[in-house]
Write a structure and sequence with these properties.
Among the domains are: 90 residues, OB fold (Dihydrolipoamide Acetyltransferase, E2P), CATH 2.40.50.140; 154 residues, P-loop containing nucleotide triphosphate hydrolases (Rossmann fold, 3-Layer(aba) Sandwich), CATH 3.40.50; 158 residues, P-loop containing nucleotide triphosphate hydrolases (Rossmann fold, 3-Layer(aba) Sandwich). Helix content is 40%, strand content 19%. It contains 26 helices and 24 strands. It has a 7-stranded parallel β-sheet with strand order 12-13-11-15-17-10-18, with helices on both faces. A hairpin with a 5-residue loop joins strand 3 and strand 4. Helix 10 crosses helix 26. It starts with 12 loop residues before the first strand and ends in a 9-residue tail after the last helix. The structure holds adenosine-5'-diphosphate (ADP) and magnesium ion (MG). The site of magnesium ion (MG) has 4 residues, from helix 13.
């Protein structure tokens, strides 16, 4: 979408999103090193001289430059350095031996194939080809000697090798193990091997680190590490190579972690070099913030006060804040965001608040608007459900600066809203924004960058934060508001649904409300929707005296809003819902939640869902219905949920069950994940890399730059989300 040309002389900020494919543009906008794509593709043409078709295959593997090729490391090796004897053949393992063809024939049962037997003086083994040329039939004439390579299998008639590689006997042996590279369809091992071998000659494997640094950390020189991994000699410990504990691997892992730390630090520095309007907080006991605090029905918790101060301090600095506000479900992040917003409004600036879903945007608007009106601030909402006419009117108030706080979904902001004077962007549940939908601020022609506050209920474990989020500042609300009652969690077999239905009816009779969460159907949205409708109908039949509502992602926005409003006022007693209610929904009177097929949900998701209850005066209960015969992982997930309500603990367990993908969410543009190092197993090296990064940036900036260049070429844009 095009942004409108600004109609006044005031600087304008256009807020919009950038799809994954436009990451390059985002990188340029935010002033990061722009990827040297054209230079890179020229370089690979020089290095590989491959025809166009296989060039594309290299590209598909992300191998754009010779430098990429040398860092494309083998998965395993085949030993062609020695000739084994057939009495050593073990099914499932590769073997290389030399022998004489005993007999061969082309058979047609069950299909056309070439079958030969070969004897090496010790033993005989069968060779079999399902695809072959007439010349191969010639080669297999009895009496001829060959060198044969391949994987031994236990066949029907004894040991055999299918599609073996056959070369001249008595040729010189390879001096190093043969690398087997990760590849893609249509790109053979020999051609990828050749391209990498050529790149290894072409690239100067100079060390980015000096001897003192290497010795201090007891690291292998880069050239030696690269050569060892690509072409280890029989003397190298193959197991250590495969397990990636070999010193050569340690060196590369360290380099990768170091590059990551350096670029995170560079991103932080780049941000600090940008300018923002400092937003000084008002005097204590004066201004909008203290006015609002006086009207609240509660006092802030100590943790809320602490993080508010951290944010207030950041907002007053002349460069953009990038702060992540983390706090478990129900910890009260929204009011903290509102206080930050008021600090900007007080200085005559605008604030944008973005939520991942329509429901959440509507709910945020309700809160922000209520709080705004008590202190005389104008808050507007832009969601998909407003009419074109309304939108035009709202847009006008945003463009004139009359609207001080603008709440909306991200989708809306894609339509380019012209702010008169935007200085703070608040993004809720940022991890829910999908991959490739990262937020970018179009700052063309603008002297000032807005401050950014992201909020997330998903705690990021320390090692992960250190590895992937070191460019952000993090504030944690580590305390729930007082008076929260613990939620009882029950694991119930699906066969006992009737008892659960009775319990729901009882809870509602006592004046409470309940959620009934429909099973997740990952394979098919249509099926998921159908399941939700079926569940809704079944519950209506089973509990005819209750008022039951249904909300799911495919419902038109107005209807969604109507249903949610009816649930909020208590008119709807039982809400049947898909995971659209996963984040943020806040109805304190709802005290019971039933999750069907709980085994299908992720741990973080279950924790989020459960966080919808236990928000009010009532004793709350969460029933996890599960099917028999759980997988081990599903059982561990349910156990974790049963055992603890601590979001941090749950997050740690989730991490160990599933790895870091989920946590990285929007950051996961495919390259954000470490390729070689494992931030948990190599935690010690993460720390060392961080210390080294600090040292290099201070004492050897050119080394730091060279190191980033080697490792992060084309890969820095992920830091901008
Ligand atoms: P989350 O961190 O999950 O976004 P919310 O901001 O929605 O949590 O807050 C959850 C509920 O707790 C809301 O009803 C909110 O008004 C209430 N709340 C927030 N802070 C406090 C507090 N200090 N004392 C009591 N209730 C609070
Ligand atoms: Mg929230």
């Amino acid at each position: 979408m095009k942004s409108k040309p600004s109609s006044s002389s005031k600087p304008r900020t256009v807020l919009r999103t950038v799809a994954g494919g436009q990451a390059l543009e985002a990188a340029e906008i935010l002033g990061a090193a722009s990827p040297e794509t054209s230079a890179a593709s020229k370089a690979i043409k020089k290095a590989t001289t491959k025809p166009r078709s296989s060039l594309n295959r290299f590209e598909r593997l992300g191998l754009l430059t010779p430098n990429d090729l040398i860092l494309h490391l083998p998965l395993r090796y085949e030993d062609e350095t020695r000739i084994a004897t057939l009495d050593q053949a073990i099914p499932g393992e590769h073997i290389q031996f030399e022998g004489e063809i005993v007999d061969s024939q082309t058979t047609y049962q069950p299909r056309r194939q070439l079958v030969a037997h070969i004897n090496d003086g010790q033993d005989t083994i069968q060779l079999r080809w399902l695809n072959f040329y007439p010349s191969q039939v010639q080669q297999m004439q009895p009496g001829r000697r060959w060198r044969v390579r391949g994987e031994v299998r236990a066949g029907f008639h004894g040991l055999e090798i299918i599609q073996p590689k056959v070369t001249q006997a008595d040729a010189p042996l390879s001096a190093s193990l043969t690398p087997i590279y990760p590849t893609t369809e249509g790109l053979t091992q020999p051609s990828i091997r050749k391209a990498i071998a050529e790149a290894l000659v072409k690239v100067t494997l100079s060390d980015t680190l000096d001897d003192a640094t290497l010795q201090g950390l007891n690291l292998m020189p880069f050239a030696q590490a690269i050569k060892t991994i690509h072409h280890p000699t029989p003397a190298d410990d193959e197991n250590a190579l495969l397990e990636r504990t070999h010193p050569a691997w340690v060196r590369l892992k360290f380099d990768e972690l170091l590059a990551q730390q350096l670029s995170l630090a560079a991103a932080r520095q780049a941000r600090q070099n940008k300018q923002s309007t400092p937003l000084p907080p008002s005097q204590p006991k004066q201004g909008l913030i203290s006015k609002l605090l006086k009207t609240l029905p509660f006092n802030l918790t100590a943790a809320q006060r602490r993080v508010s101060e951290e944010i207030a301090h950041d907002l007053n600095r002349p460069f953009p804040m990038h702060r992540l506000l983390q706090g478990d479900v129900g910890s009260g992040k929204t009011i903290v965001a509102m206080l930050a917003a008021l600090q900007a409004v007080e200085q005559g600036h605008q604030v944008a608040v973005m939520a991942p879903t329509e429901i959440l945007a509507a709910q945020h608007f309700e809160k922000f608007n209520l709080w705004s009106s008590t202190v005389g601030v104008t808050c507007v909402v832009l969601t998909g459900s407003v009419t074109t006419k309304q939108r035009r009117e709202v847009n006008a108030t945003i463009e004139s600066g009359q609207a001080q706080i603008v709440v909306g979904t991200q989708a809306l902001i894609q339509e380019a809203v012209n702010f008169a004077n935007l200085s703070l962007v608040i993004v809720d549940e940022q991890h829910r924004f999908g991959v490739g939908q990262r937020l970018a601020l179009n700052l063309k022609g603008l002297a000032f960058s807005p401050h950014q506050l992201s909020m997330s209920a998903t705690p990021i474990p320390r090692t992960l934060a250190m590895t992937f989020f070191a460019d952000l500042d993090v504030s944690v609300i580590d305390e729930l508001p007082p008076g929260r009652k613990p939620i009882r969690t029950k694991l119930v077999k699906a066969q006992r649904r009737d008892e659960v239905l009775a319990a729901v009816a009882r809870a509602i009779q006592e004046g409470g409300q309940a959620y009934w969460v429909c099973p997740l159907v990952q394979e098919s949205e249509a099926l998921e929707l159908q399941t939700a409708v079926d569940t809704f109908e079944a519950l209506q039949t089973a509990l005819p005296h209750l008022t039951i509502g249904l909300v799911h992602g495919k419902l038109p926005n107005e209807e969604k809003a109507t249903v949610m409003a009816a649930f909020k006022t208590g008119h709807i007693q039982l809400l049947v819902a898909t995971t659209v209610i996963e984040v943020g929904v806040d109805v304190p009177n709802a005290s019971m939640m039933v999750i069907e097929h709980a085994e299908r949900f992720g741990l973080a998701q279950l924790h989020q869902l459960r966080g919808r209850v236990g928000r009010g005066e009532r004793d709350s209960i969460c029933v996890l219905l599960f099917e028999d015969r759980l997988s081990i992982i599903a059982r561990e997930r349910l156990r974790a949920l049963y055992e603890t309500q601590d979001g941090f603990e749950i997050s740690q367990r989730d991490l160990s069950l599933r790895g870091p993908g989920e946590f990285l969410g929007a950051r996961q543009s495919g390259v954000a994940l470490l390729r070689f190092a494992d931030y948990q197993a190599d935690a010690l090296w993460v720390e060392r890399a961080r210390d080294t990064a600090v040292m290099l940036r201070r004492n050897q900036p050119e080394t730091a730059a060279a190191h980033i260049k080697r490792w992060m070429q084309n890969r820095q844009d992920y830091l901008l989300s």
